[in-house]
Design brief:
heterodimer, A: about 375 residues, 3-stranded antiparallel beta sheet, B: about 20% helix
Chain lengths: ~375, ~160
Amino acid sequence: MSLMGQDVLTEDGLFMVNIGPQHPSTHGVLHLKVWLDGETIVKIQPHLGYIHRSIEKMSENLSYRNFIFATSRMDYLSAHINNEACALTVEKGLGIQATPRAKVIRIIMAELTRLASHQLWWGCTGLDLGAVTPFFYAFRDREAINGIMEETCGARLTMNYMVPGGVMYDLHPNFQKHTKDVMASIKKNLADYDNLLTGNVIFEMRTKGVGVLSKEDAISFGCTGPTARASGVSCDIRKLFPYSGYENVQFDEILATGGDCYDRYMCRMAEMRQSVNIIEQLIDTIPEGDFQEKTKAVIKLPKGEFYQRVETARGELGVYIVSDGAASPYRVKYRSPGFSNLSALSQMAQGVKIGDLVAIMATIDLVIPDIDR
Amino acid sequence: MKEPGYFKTIYLSVRSLLKGMKMTGYYFTHLKEIQTEQYPDNRATLVMADRFRGEVIMPHNDLNEHSCTGCQACEIACPNGTIKIITKQEILADGKKKKAIDQFVYHLDLCTMCNLCIVACPTDAIKMGHEFEHSVFDKSQLKKILNVKGSKVKAGVE
């Protein structure tokens, strides 16, 4: 028996199944080749490239001001943080720093993005595991955050609000009031989230002990973000290599030890509370002053290599720019968190039933355009 | 940690399910304001945020004048080649020649609403409009010429 020129039954009696590229649980065009022994997964091979847009190559022909917008389309759920990473790298090359006001705005915006991203993930995890209700609660709160983004940045998803030297506009006059309102309602609603899903017996049975990733494996696969922190790897860039003034705010790095789906879930739930905590610390004390450092009309980086890492909602994003002194980068490379986290999927899914693969994929929080770029 | 007994497990399981049901029931009986927007029906009352990016527009005043000097800063700032400015030489009253725009061509189908052209403009000639319903049957309708026919540069804008 063959499918698309490939034998479905292998010589050692395994059965090959294609999941994706169009499958509701992959949240995008991810293609997984899964080899099964009965119902048990033996091997997984992810196939990429269905949404490759060559953002890195495109950046080589764009100026240092222009190439930032394309990164919103990588990990579209942490668009702000991607833009910030690029802006920080260019600032590093220029040897300047954003103004104090811009730094605080950046942190608040990044944490709002992280909250919105985790809320979407929470809803979709419920959806993947058969609980439809959480999705609506999550999107109700996420909508409020998107409203804040629209008011200040002009867009809901692909903001392009970070520019080298600061932010594009000053904050909207209503920003502080609306953010405080949203934070108050989110703090209340996080308890609702726990009531709905966290203690639920069906959810616990689907996630506890499923898809265990050991600490050693997490390190050797290069996992970052909540995926690695659930296995006990301390890898929060905000703590280890503070940028944009994260060294001045008080927050905890969330670590767990189990490394299973439930721990990854709990890590993200706790991170949402930390994000609310960070925003509440800063929202009343945004320093006055310029929101943008003066930069030249045409930015030229000196000859050399510049690297900056930031913590997105999914893990560590690295931006690497090689400059030859011209007005556009010689080479840009993005180290995306999704790609490394996906590589551990085969290890996590070994020996689990095919139904649990959905739970593992949901808790890694894959965003496919981030993997392909 | 000791595993709970058989009946205790059943009790805890049922309780966890009821906890979620209780919350759903609470929202079911306590209807607050409706969260969803009835979009196509609320067109008349729909207000977008002031900074909402729908499309690039060029405001003209009552005398059919705009502020675009044809400096092409927006064309350089655009990452996608969305804007093409065609200039012409205008002969002024005193016989001097001056550069002015003939056509400000805007390809809406290429635009990503990144706002870089608006920031680059030195005379605030262009801004972001709030129109977001851009569907057309023919792609060529998305190529727009922003300056109105017969319009001139505002006096004093250099």
